[in-house]
Amino acid sequence: MADQTTTEASGAVLGAAPGAALDPATGAAAPGQAGSTGDRPVKIIGIVCNWCSYAGADTAGVGRFKQPANMRLIRVPCTGRIDPLFALKAFQKGADGVLISGCHPGDCHYSEGNYYARRKFELLERMIHHLGIPKERFKWTWVSASEGQRWQQVVTKFVAGVERLGPREGRAL
Amino acid sequence: VSRQDHIREFAAKALGDGRVDYFIGWKQAYNSSEVIPAFVKDPAEVEQLVWNPLCQHNLVTFLKRNMPDPPGAKIGVCVKGCDSRTLVALLQEELVDKEKLYVVGVPCDGIVDRRKLEKELAAEMVDIAFPDKGKIVVTTRQGETKEFDQKAVELDVCARCRYPNPLYADDTAGPPEAEPEYDITKPDFGDVAAYEALTDGDKQALLEQIYSTCVRCFACINVCPVCFCWDKCVNRSRTPEIVSQKVEPKENLLFQMVHMMHVAGRCPSCGACDRACPVEIPLYLLHRKMNKELYDMFRFEPGVKLDEKPVFQVFDLKDQFGD
């Protein structure tokens, strides 16, 4: 599953494929209005590290754990590679939620990438909420390559949270 | 001896001794209601340097690019308390060469916000005088004069200032200013409280309104002393096109968020961007909030200790973020 969606998702986020851009005028529910799912399924961008969470998503697929299909994965070499801009750009392009995941602290393939990353993500999360994007729409966490089950739980819970808010009609980002 | 005399004396000595090739200070603009940055190369020209509560420019901005410029140049520069923090932030990351600098610290008791004055007056200002401490007298083109209490028209950042005295300087112009009467043991981020109290929907609506006026002139990043990826700015990159050329609220806020996230850990909220913005976008809503969260996360204040590394340049195994 992950392999098929990677190309499409990165195209949408980096603006290379205008066709993949989201339609803002879908008659979706107002942001924050609970209980409404709008007319279209929510689109969620997952930015995952190659070594742990991407492999974890693969493990979940191989294990045939049922999970929502709203997630488009973008594979990056390391969470340390993830610029806060990626998440902001995803929201600006119309993503309804952004999930960032990587190796557990101590397990980084490059020893220390995620130690730097978690500082950035914590600030990013707080700043995203500061812009008026609800907490449910952004999450960062750790999923290792063997944690297919955990990947399933994380994704299911996150997508459910975003679906409760419905598609997003961002006004300022 | 006034601080202004001290600045002139230090500048003349440094230029005369050959300690610096040029000296950056402030001078009067086209009339005495405004001050602009001055670049003095000749000891005979130091008389043009001034110091008064109109000296709002953060001169550290001129050190950030191609330092030293021209190569090998030794530069003298005046810094206020807030400016010194941006200089310390650059020194922490070794982005400027301490050996090539001569820093004159200028203790400061608040800078006047010209925009507040402009809003009070019908006509253009031609003169601003400072007869007594804490009082300013403004004369307009129509000959009208009006007196203001300096505290009432000073910059918003000055009202919460905790560092009136420069934190890094080779020489200091006169005795230090008295510390403020309010609690300065910890930063006060009360200026973003009203915004934070809004609902998510209201925040988005307000930001949309604010950022619809941005014309993407890049004055905020050009004037920012700690924003210096000049040759490779992601905001101006066209391949890949991260921030598009389209000027609309979402792109404008994305551009500004890129700026904020890139200067995180370096930006001490000197407010140069707020003052530079021609359409008066309240950028403090972002950079003050960012500093509030950095203080909350790390008890970290940018540009305060020379031997400290900015929080995003280092990490700690004991960090307790995430689940």
Biggest sheet architecture of chain B: 5 strands, mixed
Structural class of chain A: alpha/beta
Tally of extended strands of chain A? 4
Number of helices of chain A: 5
Roughly what fraction of the amino acids of chain A lie in strands? 5-15%
Main sheet overview of chain A: 4 strands, parallel
Number of DSSP helices of chain B?
10
Large-scale geometry of chain A: globular
Radius of gyration of chain B: 20 Å
Which key terms come to mind for this protein?
heterodimer, A: 173 residues, alpha/beta, 4-stranded parallel beta sheet, 4 strands, globular, disordered N terminus, B: 323 residues, 5-stranded mixed beta sheet, 3-stranded antiparallel beta sheet, 10 helices, 13% strand
In words, what does this structure look like?
The complex is a heterodimer of chains A (173) and B (323). By secondary structure, chain A is an alpha/beta fold. Chain A is 39% helix and 13% strand. In chain A, helix 2 (53-62) packs across helix 5 (148-165). The longest helix of chain A has 18 residues, at 113-130. Chain A is globular, with a radius of gyration of 15 Å. Residues 1-37 of chain A have low confidence and may be disordered. Chain B has helices at residues 3-17, 81-92, 114-120, 156-159, 193-196, 200-211, 219-223, 249-263, 272-276, 284-298, and strands at residues 22-28, 35-40, 75-79, 101-105, 125-129, 135-140, 145-149, 171-172. Chain B is globular, with a radius of gyration of 20 Å. The mean pLDDT of chain B is 93. Chain A binds chain B through residues 14-15, 30-32, 84-85, 88-89, 92, 105, 112, 115-116, 118-124, 126-127, 130-134, 140-142, 170-173, and chain B through 196, 198-208, 211, 234, 240-242, 244, 249-251, 253-254, 257-258, 260-261, 264, 286, 289-290, 293-294, 297, 311-312, 315-317, 319, 321-323.
Short account of what is shown:
Chain A is an alpha/beta fold and 173 residues long. Chain A contains five helices and four strands.
